[in-house]
């Protein structure tokens, strides 16, 4: 990436100077993912690695809820997000008050909250989950009725894996994955009859039904790494294909994919500025943080 060489060199030096680590989500662009990132992965891996790091500063190359999760797990470290506006349609879809009202409506039913939510919403929850562990988290509760919020499609796709549990959900959607249709998948299969289709469980169930496999971003990357299909379509955010394609040049990656405008707010110049100016620092009201941390820690304890 010669065009970014100046920023990359500066970021590497700033990381050493500030004892900083960069955690990057799989949806970051390749020039971030393959150069300055120390740890890359899905939401679950980034949360786990946030606990392990001994850096003083964590730069989260991802969206705001991921930076908040890192801060929850590292209250004494500086956590920076390079663009404070990097949000998420799922996190926007529900408030802490909404969760309190759901609890009043379904007394005693445990609340499983997707990590794609604000710390205030996590604080009202019993336990968090990601797309990589939703089934295990629900099973760990040993109940036959559970509220899974706010992603309606993740809840429905997970419900298919836990047939003995009734799942009450919320009408939140990922603006990137809700746009995929079964026709998109049929069209790609028509063009490439041998294509292997991998979908993210934030996509609607009728889309997942057309895919060969559904899993978190790490689940999809692992599938390609293990099976090395000749041709694959990753029905998810576009940078995912670019990042995995760089690792397996023998695999052909075909579309459809959609861009996440929030993830794309993070750029190398903004990461450089974040380190130079120690901004934008993530802070969480301590009263909220304490309860939200519990929900995240309970999730991390599920293996
Ligand atoms: P995972 O990386 O956990 O699969 O999450 C996907 C996503 O949309 C994160 O914003
Ligand atoms: Fe949120 Fe979807 Fe973007 Fe992930 S891809 S940050 S779930 S809007």
UniProtKB/TrEMBL annotation:
Its cofactor is [4Fe-4S] cluster. It comes from the Bacteria. Keywords: 4Fe-4S, Cytoplasm, Iron, Iron-sulfur, Metal-binding, Pyridine nucleotide biosynthesis, Transferase. Binds 1 [4Fe-4S] cluster per subunit. [4Fe-4S] cluster binds at residues 88, 174, 260. Pfam families: NadA. SUPFAM superfamilies: NadA-like (SSF142754). Iminosuccinate binds at residues 25, 43, 114-116, 131, 200-202, 217. It catalyses: iminosuccinate + dihydroxyacetone phosphate = quinolinate + phosphate + 2 H2O + H(+). Its main location: cytoplasm. Its EC number is 2.5.1.72. The keyword Oxidoreductase does not apply. The keyword Oxidoreductase does not apply. GO terms for molecular function: transferase activity. It is found in: Cytoplasm. It is an enzyme of class 2 (transferase). Pathway: Cofactor biosynthesis; NAD(+) biosynthesis; quinolinate from iminoaspartate: step 1/1. HAMAP family: NadA_type2 (MF_00568). Catalyzes the condensation of iminoaspartate with dihydroxyacetone phosphate to form quinolinate. Belongs to the quinolinate synthase family. Type 2 subfamily. NCBIfam families: nadA, PRK09375.1-2, PRK09375.1-4. This is Quinolinate synthase. It comes from Microvirga arabica. The gene is nadA.
């Amino acid at each position: 990436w010669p065009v970014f060489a100046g920023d990359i060199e500066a970021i590497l030096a700033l990381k050493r100077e500030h004892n900083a680590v960069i955690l990057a989500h799989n949806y970051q662009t390749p020039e971030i993912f393959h150069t300055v990132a120390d740890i890359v992965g899905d939401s679950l891996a980034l949360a786990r690695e946030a606990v392990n790091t001994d850096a003083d500063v964590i730069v989260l190359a991802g969206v705001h809820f991921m930076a908040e999760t890192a801060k929850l797990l590292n209250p004494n470290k500086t956590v920076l997000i390079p663009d404070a506006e990097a949000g998420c349609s799922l996190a926007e879809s529900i408030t802490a008050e909404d969760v309190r009202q759901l609890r009043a409506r379904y007394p005693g039913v445990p609340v499983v909250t997707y990590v794609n939510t604000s710390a205030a919403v996590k604080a009202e929850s019993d336990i968090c989950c990601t797309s990589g562990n939703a089934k295990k988290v629900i099973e760990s509760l040993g109940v036959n009725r559970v509220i899974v919020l706010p992603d309606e499609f993740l809840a429905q796709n997970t419900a298919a894996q836990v047939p003995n549990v009734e799942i009450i959900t919320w009408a939140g959607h990922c603006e990137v994955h809700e746009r995929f249709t079964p026709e998109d998948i049929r069209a790609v299969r028509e063009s490439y009859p041998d294509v292997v289709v991998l979908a993210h469980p934030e996509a609607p169930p009728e889309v997942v039904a057309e895919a060969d496999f559904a899993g978190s971003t790490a689940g999809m990357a692992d599938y390609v790494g293990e099976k090395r299909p000749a041709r694959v379509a990753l029905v998810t955010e576009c940078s995912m294909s670019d990042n995995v394609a760089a690792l397996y040049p023998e695999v052909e990656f075909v579309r459809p994919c959609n861009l996440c405008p929030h993830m794309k707010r993070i750029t190398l110049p903004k990461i450089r500025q974040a380190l130079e100016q120690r901004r934008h620092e993530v802070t969480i009201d301590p009263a909220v943080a304490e309860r939200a941390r519990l929900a995240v820690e309970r999730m991390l304890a599920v293996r």
